[in-house]
Design a protein that fits this description.
It comes from Marinobacter psychrophilus. Keywords: Endonuclease, Hydrolase, Nuclease. One of its GO terms (cellular component) is membrane. The chain contains 6 helices and 13 strands. It has a 7-stranded mixed β-sheet with strand order 1-4-5-3-2-13-12. It has a single domain, classed as Endonuclease/exonuclease/phosphatase (Deoxyribonuclease I, Chain A, 4-Layer Sandwich). Helix 3 packs across helix 4. Strand 7 and strand 8 form a beta hairpin. The radius of gyration is 18 Å and the shape is globular. The protein has 289 residues and is an alpha+beta fold. 48% of the residues are buried. Helices cover 22% and strands 28% of the residues. The N and C termini lie far apart (58 Å).
Length: 289
C-alpha cells in the first residue's frame, strides 16, 4: 500500500514539473493599435466555487473533487465581469478534470466573456481529479507568451510572462500564484526578480499570498522600483475583506488612472483592477473599447 501511494505521489510530482500550456492561438487575435488605456484584472476564481463564509470551506469542500451545476452558473457570473477588461490574470483554474466536468475553465471563461486569446498553464497535474492551472485572457495579440515553473519544495506553482507593444521596449506582464510558505515565496520572488530585471515597463499580477509591504521590503522584490496599487487592496476573504493577498504591482514608468478592489464576491477572493497608460513613445496602445 505504501509503495503504491509513494509511486502515485512521485508520478504527480513529475507531472507537476512538466510545462504543458495550451492556448487558443493568435491568428484571430487583433494587434494593439493607437490608444490610451489598457484595463487589467487579476482574479483567483477558486475553480469556480462560490464561497461566501468560512463554513463553506467545509460544506462545499466536495466541489474541489466532484462536479456541480452551480459551478457553471458561477463561471458565467465571472465571465460577465471579465468581459469589461482587456488583459486578465486568472489563478486557481481547472484545466479539464472530473470536478470541472472536463471543461478547461480558462478556455470557457475566454469564450463566455468574448475574449479572443487565452493561455492555460498547467501547474499541478492530478489526472482526472484536478488540473491546477493559471490562465491569461487577452483582447490583444501578445508579442510572446512564456510559462515557467516556480521553485518550491512542493511543485505546482507557476508564472506566465507575456510581452506587449514595442519589441525593443515592451510592456512585460508577469502573472503568478505564489506559495503560502514564506521561504518558498523568497525563492519564487527571487526567480521573478531575475525575469523582470532587464525591463523598464513591468506589471506583476496575481495571488501573492502576502501583503504588499512584506513583498516589497522583505523579499527580493525590494531591489525593484515596483509600486503596489492600490495601496490597501484587501481582497480576502471576499465576504469580509481583511487581508491584502492579491496585487497588481507596476513600474513607475506606467501612468495609472485608476486601481482598486472590485466588489464582486463570486469566489473567496475579490479581483483587483487597474487602468493604465503605457508610454506612447515606447509602446503602441490598444484603442478604448
Amino acid at each position: 500500500m505504501y509503495k503504491r501511494l509513494r509511486n502515485q505521489w512521485n508520478d504527480m510530482r513529475r507531472s507537476a514539473g512538466d510545462a504543458r500550456g495550451s492556448s487558443s492561438g493568435v491568428d484571430h487575435v487583433p494587434d494593439f493599435s493607437e490608444g490610451d488605456h489598457i484595463r487589467l484584472l487579476t482574479f483567483n476564481i477558486q475553480v469556480g466555487i462560490s464561497t461566501s463564509s468560512y463554513r463553506h470551506y467545509l460544506t462545499r469542500s466536495w466541489q474541489h473533487v466532484l462536479p456541480h451545476r452551480s459551478r457553471f452558473e458561477n463561471l458565467d457570473r465571472i465571465a460577465t465581469l471579465l468581459s469589461n477588461y482587456d488583459v486578465i490574470a486568472l489563478q486557481e483554474c481547472d484545466g479539464g478534470s472530473l470536478r470541472s466536468g472536463y471543461i478547461n475553465q480558462v478556455q470557457y471563461l475566454a469564450e463566455a466573456a468574448g475574449i479572443p486569446y487565452w493561455y492555460q498553464q498547467l501547474n499541478r497535474n492530478l489526472g482526472q481529479f484536478a488540473q491546477h492551472s493559471n490562465g491569461l485572457l487577452s483582447r490583444f495579440r501578445p508579442l510572446e507568451v512564456k510559462e515557467h515553473r516556480l521553485p518550491g519544495l512542493i511543485p505546482g506553482r507557476g508564472v506566465i510572462v507575456a510581452k506587449y507593444g514595442n519589441p525593443e521596449d515592451p510592456l512585460l506582464l508577469v502573472m503568478m500564484h505564489l506559495s503560502l510558505s514564506k521561504s518558498a515565496q523568497q525563492r519564487q520572488l527571487g526567480f521573478v526578480s531575475e525575469l523582470i530585471s532587464d525591463y523598464r515597463h513591468v506589471v506583476l499580477m496575481g495571488d501573492m499570498n502576502a501583503h504588499a509591504e512584506q513583498l516589497l521590503t522583505n523579499t527580493p522584490l525590494k531591489q525593484t522600483d515596483l509600486i503596489p496599487l492600490p495601496a490597501n487592496a484587501h481582497s480576502f476573504p471576499s465576504w469580509r475583506p481583511e487581508k491584502a493577498l492579491d496585487h497588481i504591482l507596476v513600474s513607475p514608468s506606467l501612468q495609472v488612472h485608476s486601481s482598486g478592489v472590485v466588489s464582486y464576491p463570486v469566489s473567496d477572493h475579490l479581483p483587483i483592477a487597474l487602468d493604465v497608460t503605457l508610454p506612447k513613445a515606447n509602446v503602441i496602445l490598444p484603442k478604448q473599447m
